[in-house]
Amino acid sequence: MSQHQHKSATQRVTLVIFFTCVTMVLYSFSTPYLQASPRRLPRAVPCTHQTIPIQKREFPHASKGPREVKSCKPKVDLMFLKTHKTASSTILNILLRFGQRNHLKFALPNSRNDFFYPSRFVRTQVKDYVPGVCYNIICNHMRFNAEEVEALLPNDAFFFTILREPAMVFESSFHYFKKLVPLTWMIRGEDKLTVFLSDPNRYFTTDGFNAFYLKNVQFFDLGYDNNLNPEDPIVEQAIHAISDRFQLILIAEYFEESLILLKDALCWETDDLLFFKLNARRSTSVAQLTPELRAKAHEWNSVDWKLYRHFNATFWARVDTYGRKRMERDVKELRRRNMEMSTICIDGGMAVEERDIRDESMKPWQPVGENSILGYNLRTNIDQQYSELCRKMLMPEIQYLTELGVNLWLTQLWSWFKYFLAL
Fold this sequence. Notes:
Elements (H helix, E strand, L loop, with lengths): L2 H28 L47 E4 L6 H14 L35 E2 L7 H5 L7 E6 L2 H12 L14 H7 L1 H4 L13 H5 L11 H13 L2 E4 L3 H12 L24 H10 L1 H21 L1 H22 L38 H11 L2 H7 L5 H14 L1
Helix pairs in contact: 1-15, 4-10, 10-11
């Protein structure tokens, strides 16, 4: 390496370290200190609730499928706990579209696209928070805090979340966040995930910066200590508390079946749940876990594994109650409708690499140093009656929140840093 190249590389490393430190300091100042027992605000008085009528949307080609007859009243007061790496971004898009179309009141974050995660949620983190005012929908990333969330919603609000098989969550989380978790920086070699799982305790410390992303992150998102032993009585108590608080736990591996159960619980219609898969990675970036690695990932994420097995069982119990034949029929109809919308909306009919997305405003958020998240190109000849729906179905989270009026200045700062790092 020439002296000029060595000097240039040294300057680049120095600048990267400097900007990393500045960004982390700003991000840390914006996030309250992570505590097991955060400061409690005064107990809120019951919020004032106003009934909002639901607007029906008819699609000309919807009559091809079975006609839905509804005798119940659609639910509009919703709390969705958006867990990490569980297909939750797709559900978020469904909720944002439903709420916006029906003029519902969102409890939105402020300055970032989450509620100051990983600190536990407090109601004052909501954009333009006004004490005593009821919201209809809360659905952005947070670390769950039941009492604070309940202060923002009517008493009959519907709480739900989604879980995913923990080995796959770990693989996805490791890929997505590894450059934000300093404890992984010392791992040598290309296959850092395999090296880590061979001896996790060699690298992992419970107080490491962002370490929660790499151990029982679903249990952590639900507001609990992710470093507990699965046999600890607190874990069993937590599972019971989650069962009591959340009326429905979706399972990512059975996403369409989950949406059908959600449709039934909320008294929604199939057209309310149309979706395109968002924030998905290209297949070549996904590590293929051997049975041995999967077992190690389960052992390392043993609390999440216990959590998942419990709610996977309750999920299938609900499917049995719903009816297997009925479920099969409704999933088939949902797939038919999604395929129709794909033909109407998506140029080429499938997701593409970031470099192939023509519209800059439709490019998804990428992990640091990666371009593994896929996005879409809108067709250019979409019928006017579908153009807005198509745009919103394909719109990434950051852009959608901006459209809803959230000032994401901290998220934008981090985006600029990532751009600089990639130069």
